[in-house]
Design brief:
The chain has helices at about 55-65, 85, 90-95, 110, 115-125, 135-145, 220-230, 245-275, 280-290, 295-310, and strands at about 15-20, 20-25, 35-40, 45-50, 75, 100-105, 150-155, 160, 165-170, 180-185, 190-195, 235-240, 245, 275-280, 315-320, 325-330. It is α+β, with helices and mostly antiparallel strands. It has two domains: about 15-255, Metallo-beta-lactamase, Chain A; about 275-330, no CATH class. The chain has a seven-stranded mixed sheet, covered by helices on one side. β10 (about 180-185) and β11 form a beta hairpin. The chain binds zinc ion.
Length: about 350
């Protein structure tokens, strides 16, 4: 296994061949580790993920200039529609107009409509009405880049081909984003998972803070992790969380699952201590217990999903107070006592 900081200190565009015709390329941005992958067939390339808007000029162009030029880029496969995976699409379309773009069908609106991307994910994405400040808004809007039509809207099960016929299988995973897609290179058995496995969240080396793992419904997340485990890829190639050999995938998946279990316990612990909380109060309590994390969009999305799971299993009771949601710890029911409830049928 190589860890997520394998390329720390390396220039952007620095590459390593991790399997036959599969190159991992350093595409770090804003202090986050990030790797995009090039797959070769004959004289042409397929690319997994395009980074943020500035990534192609800074990290992808240096690689392509040494490996056949922009005319050799045939296929761009987005693992999902988040800013740091499709943000470079417009730059690539401009410099490699022949390239075809693939993305999970449920995420295509985020690549084809940057305004909708920002509004749905950042303005309306978090429960409780939280939104980023105006400085963050500007940075994110620039990073999303321009709109590019998706030539291959994927639902999973398709086989993409490029070059001399190198075949890429697609698996729909959802969870981290609605259209999160796993790509499997049939020739090497390498799988490209984007952000499907979230571990304990990604450390930003500029801020020293981790981003919370982010996913929609805890059960979808668990199902997507087990799906990856059962695929037994020869190499699991992630965007921000390293490259894992087959023998390391189980442990990597187990650590991601364990993080989720601990996070549920932490929320329940806070509910027991405080009795009840709003989302913003919960985020404040989480900040005290988990000071290594940035308290932005992701904590609210993920906490919201864990709260739903705790409500579903009866540990928390949701209410609306003045239009705002609160969660209250359900008290353990008193032990049943037949003597206090006389019943005629008992006689
Ligand atoms: Zn993502």
């Amino acid at each position: 296994m190589t860890n997520e900081h394998e390329f720390a200190g390396r220039p952007l565009g620095f590459s390593r061949e991790v399997a036959d015709g599969v190159f991992a390329v350093n595409a770090a941005f804003w202090g986050f580790p990030n790797v995009v992958y090039f797959l070769r067939s004959g004289r042409t390339w397929a690319l997994v993920d395009s980074g943020v808007a500035e990534t192609p000029a800074r990290a992808i162009a240096p690689f392509l200039e040494q490996h056949g030029g922009f005319g050799s880029l045939e296929l761009v496969m987005g693992t999902h529609g988040h800013v740091d995976h499709i943000g470079g699409n417009a730059w690539l379309k401009q410099h490699a107009p022949q390239a075809r773009f693939a993305l999970g069908a449920l995420d295509t609106d985020w690549a084809e409509d940057p305004h909708r991307h920002y509004e749905t994910l950042y303005v309306h994405g978090a429960p409780g009405g939280w939104r980023p400040d105006s400085e963050t808004e500007q940075v994110v809007r620039e990073a999303i880049g321009g709109p590019v039509a998706i030539d291959h809207p994927l639902v999973g099960g398709e086989v993409l081909t490029f070059g001399l016929g190198r075949e890429i299988e697609t698996v729909h995973l959802g969870a981290h984003s609605p259209g999160q897609t796993l790509y499997i290179d049939r020739m090497t058995g390498c799988a490209f998972s984007g952000d499907a496995v979230q571990g304990a969240g990604i450390m930003n080396t500029s801020t020293g803070l981790r981003d919370f793992p982010m996913y929609r419904t805890l059960s979808d997340y668990r199902a997507s992790l087990e799906a990856i485990r059962s695929l037994r890829p020869a190499l699991l190639c992630t965007a921000h969380a390293g490259i894992h050999e087959r023998g390391d995938v189980d442990g990597f998946i187990d650590r991601a699952l364990a993080w989720g279990v601990r996070f549920t316990e932490t929320i329940l612990d806070i509910a027991t201590e405080h009795g009840s909380f709003s989302m913003e109060e919960l985020v404040e309590h989480l900040g005290e217990r988990m000071p290594e994390y940035a308290l932005i969009l992701q904590v609210r999305v993920t906490a919201g999903e864990h709260l739903n799971a705790l409500v579903a299993r009866g540990d928390l009771v949701p209410t609306m107070e003045g239009g705002a949601k609160r969660w209250t710890r359900r008290q353990a029911p008193a032990p049943a006592s037949s003597s206090t409830v006389p019943s005629q049928t008992d006689r």
